[in-house]
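Need a sequence for this fold. Nothing fancy.
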């Protein structure tokens, strides 16, 4: 199955997938990991349980009514992606009815897991190409220092045959990074420029190394694709935060990472890090910082965190949300209480303060009934952008707090 290969080459043989963290629309210090999923692959289970695969495939596995989602490019925030799903609901309803499927019901965890998983598909990337990797091994100067298989090169670095059972690109990335300063010394000694990587280069190199391995599939060691929540901790522990800020917190020596486009594959992000290693090494020397090294799955966790940085939604505008609540005709169906400092929707009347996930869960679960009402009354489906969803969530949260006072 192609989806299994996709996940395998993206460093995942993980079968146990744990519960996702809840994505809140709020931005506060009380929830340091808000918006970060702990195991993004958890959503694959939801994808299948809710019969999304009846219409959509992932790398060829699944239905063909809708597009193959592995070929789509999902970017933006949690609510940006959620809005795309919401706006697609009328078309989804038609296909659901044609297939005689009941409209699915979601929990908060289902919503969080599914959207995180769809966002994560781009991160997984695609399998490397062996022949391209073999060419890169020569053109990037790897043979100057390393020997592999029958290709006898230099003996400065270890024989890469030793690494063959570590079959994932993430392991290759981590090993190269950890030896960055020593490699730089050798580049200078040989008068070589530090090699740079783009796109699939690292995955191709890994595929080439793996292709000449004598290890069986059972003996090969893969690393987890990474836990973004753990990666946030690695980001702090390894001192990355001293040079890079995220949402205004951290140093200013390097660029703020929420201003960098990091919705790329694991290989692309790793290549970006490596390509800037010279500048980083210089800056760290000036600051008298030690070059960070990684072990076990720390590099995988860090890259997964970087990928999800811009997945976290910024705060919405509650005043704009109130205007949108009327503009999108929500008031035609939802009760309001004008006695509590203005209009307060019944959607904000529960004991728990609304979050982006709980609001989405309510919207998705109510979509079939809402569709019937909208069609019967000849009204347009309320199309929403991610920004508009953030504002509406901010409005509902504010009105809940006002009503609780």
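Here you go.
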């Amino acid at each position: 199955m192609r989806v299994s290969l996709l996940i395998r080459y993206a460093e995942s043989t993980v079968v146990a997938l744990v519960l996702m963290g809840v994505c809140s629309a709020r931005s506060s210090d009380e929830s340091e990991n808000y918006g970060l999923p702990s195991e993004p692959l958890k959503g694959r289970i939801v994808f299948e349980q809710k019969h999304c695969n009846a219409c959509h495939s992932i790398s060829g596995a699944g239905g063909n009514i809708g597009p193959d989602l592995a070929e789509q490019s999902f970017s933006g925030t949690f609510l940006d992606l959620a809005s795309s799903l919401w706006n697609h609901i009328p078309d989804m309803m038609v296909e659901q009815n044609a297939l005689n499927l009941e409209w699915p019901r979601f929990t908060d965890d289902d919503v969080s897991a599914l959207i995180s998983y769809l966002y994560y598909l781009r991160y997984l990337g695609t399998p490397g190409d062996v022949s391209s990797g073999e060419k890169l091994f020569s053109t990037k100067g790897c043979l100057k220092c390393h020997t592999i298989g029958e290709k006898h090169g230099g003996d400065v670095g270890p024989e890469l045959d030793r690494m063959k059972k570590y079959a994932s690109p993430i392991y290759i990335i981590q090993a190269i990074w950890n030896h960055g300063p020593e490699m730089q010394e050798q580049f200078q000694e040989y008068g070589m420029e530090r090699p740079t990587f783009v796109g699939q280069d690292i995955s191709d190199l890994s595929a080439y190394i793996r292709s000449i391995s004598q290890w069986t599939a059972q003996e090969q060691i893969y690393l987890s694709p990474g836990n973004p929540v753990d990666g946030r901790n690695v980001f702090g522990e390894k001192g990355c935060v001293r040079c890079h800020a995220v949402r205004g917190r951290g140093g200013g020596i390097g660029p703020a990472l929420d201003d960098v486009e990091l919705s790329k594959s694991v290989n692309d992000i790793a290549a970006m890090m490596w390509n800037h290693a010279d500048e980083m090494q210089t800056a760290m020397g000036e600051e008298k910082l030690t070059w960070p090294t990684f072990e076990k799955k720390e590099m995988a966790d860090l890259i997964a965190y970087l990928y999800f940085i811009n997945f976290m939604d910024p705060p919405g505008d509650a005043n704009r949300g109130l205007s949108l609540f009327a503009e999108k005709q929500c008031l035609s169906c939802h009760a309001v209480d004008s006695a509590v400092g203005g209009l307060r929707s019944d959607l904000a009347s529960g004991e728990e303060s609304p979050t982006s996930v709980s609001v989405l869960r309510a919207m998705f679960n109510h979509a079939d009934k809402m569709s019937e009402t909208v069609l019967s009354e000849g009204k347009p489906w309320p199309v929403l952008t991610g920004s508009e969803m953030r504002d509406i969530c901010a409005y509902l949260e504010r009105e809940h707090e006002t009503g609780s006072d």
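For context: Confidence is low (pLDDT under 50) at residues 1-34, 338-345.
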